[in-house]
């Protein structure tokens, strides 16, 4: 058991690469409680990152799929928000992988941080892989689109023949850092799936060991903007997409999770890579390059310097 706030020191590592699987814009008011209410003019540019995890055993997994190129195939309620979010997908996860050394056919598992459209991509392109989600994901998204015409979730994920939902009852979970529950995916301390609740049921973050005293935290949608992560602006709790009152199913829990992520990344050993963090554009190397060695390359220091300049009080 790890001491709260401390991380283990495993010998095993994984390689991590970022995939720029699309771009969209998020209305200010969806993100920030003090945001501008004009949801078409006041928007934040948001990349959409997925991540390739390569284990020394030769196993390759994806953390999220980003968006699909065939945007017309998304659920109706998602397409209704296109005037606000303006999604663009020049290349999807399959295209990006197949341009590099690890091909899409090499992926054995896709771990979904959660089941929103900008993270599930086109699941059919990875029909050979196992799909893994966090506890409660299927109950929160059943039956899904198109079985339920007004659902924002794709039914194809939870109906996949190789679908696996982690369980709090039958799978082993351990505390790590400030988080109460982490699942040691490869059973060697190199890659943990972490319960990061609040955004929606089943939401997972991940913590990848990329070198000695060096980790990368993959945040999914536990936090949508660096200003929210560092507490420079308040999380929106009253306006969200699809007519919902918040971007997060449980806003107060989401805020608590964000605080834990900030605690984790505030030290010198963890670099946070959020799925929609625009600050990472141009600073974080992209596949086939790796995020390993970020400490020596001072990428986190560069990010922290920009954040300090933008949000110093």
From TrEMBL:
Keyword Ion transport listed: no
InterPro entries: MBL_superfamily_lactonases, Metallo-B-lactamas, RibonucZ/Hydroxyglut_hydro
Organism ancestry: Eukaryota, Fungi, Dikarya, Ascomycota, Pezizomycotina
Keywords in alphabetical order: Hydrolase, Metal-binding, Zinc
Entry keyword Zinc: yes
Highest taxon in the source lineage: Eukaryota
Cofactor(s) needed for function: Zn(2+)
Recorded family membership: Belongs to the metallo-beta-lactamase superfamily.
Name of this protein: Metallo-beta-lactamase domain-containing protein
Ranges that cross the membrane: none
GO terms, molecular function: hydrolase activity; metal ion binding
Domain Metallo-beta-lactamase: 47-269
